[in-house]
Write a structure and sequence with these properties.
With 202 residues, the chain is α/β, with parallel strands linked by helices. It has one domain: Rossmann fold, CATH 3.40.50. Helices cover 43% and strands 18% of the residues. It contains eight helices and seven strands; from the N terminus they run H-E-H-E-H-H-E-H-H-E-H-E-E-H-E. The strands form two sheets. Strands 1-2-7-6-3 form a five-stranded mixed sheet, sandwiched between helices. Strands 4-5 form a two-stranded antiparallel sheet. Strand 6, helix 8 and strand 7 form a beta-alpha-beta unit. The longest helix has 15 residues. About 5% of the residues have low confidence.
Length: 202
């Protein structure tokens, strides 16, 4: 545990700060009941969407990249609070389509995951989004589930990891992370733990 505390204390001292108090919540079983088929093993959520929505808006739509440091810190604390050993895992962000990258100017989740990787020394790789999809928050539940079908694929990498920590910002229906998890499982990944900043699901 001292390993994590050492890294986090250094990181927090030099980083932008937030008063947000996180309490890691397991939601894997809950979402397995919601989804027709599930491909992840567990989901950890840091907080409620309402408590962090203003920060996410600044980060994603006003290009406040400094907030990536705060979000990486939250994720690092989440990893620590689970009290699980993730040193054999690989970090993977949910992918961003090139059109959204062009609009925002940076990969919002990818940047956070790179910073988490620096803190934890856990390696990271990325997936590839294959076609454009409408924003999940603007769609109905049924539309969201259909919107995520067959839009992800694996980039060509030397070796498929056996264990993965999959990161996203907001958990709604679970369709996005589940489709990513499906692609990973079909590629040979054995265990997938999802880490999400916030959910609007009660």
């Amino acid at each position: 545990m001292s390993f994590w505390k050492g890294f986090l204390s250094i990181f927090i001292d030099e980083s932008p700060r937030t008063d947000l108090q996180i309490s890691v919540k397991k939601m894997g079983e809950e979402y397995k009941k919601i989804l027709e088929d599930s491909y992840f093993d567990e989901i950890f959520v840091a907080t409620e969407y309402q408590k962090i929505s203003h920060l996410l808006e600044r980060y994603k739509f006003h290009s406040d990249r400094q907030l990536s440091t705060i979000f990486a810190d939250i994720f690092a604390q989440m990893i620590q609070k689970t009290e699980m050993n993730f040193q054999d895992f690989v970090l993977i962000p949910t992918p961003m389509h090139w059109t959204r990258y062009w609009i925002r100017g940076f990969d919002t989740i990818g940047l956070i995951v790179k910073k988490i990787s620096k803190i934890t020394k856990i390696p990271h790789i990325s997936l590839l989004k294959t076609k454009f999809s409408r924003r999940q928050l603007t769609l109905s539940r049924e539309e969201r589930l259909k919107n995520r079908k067959k839009i992800f694929s694996i980039k060509k990498i030397v070796k498929i990891p056996e264990k993965v920590l999959l990161f996203d910002d907001v958990l709604t229906t679970g369709s996005t992370i589940n489709e990513c998890a499906k692609v990973l499982k079909n590629a040979g990944v054995k265990e997938i733990i999802v880490c999400v900043l916030a959910t609007n699901h009660k």
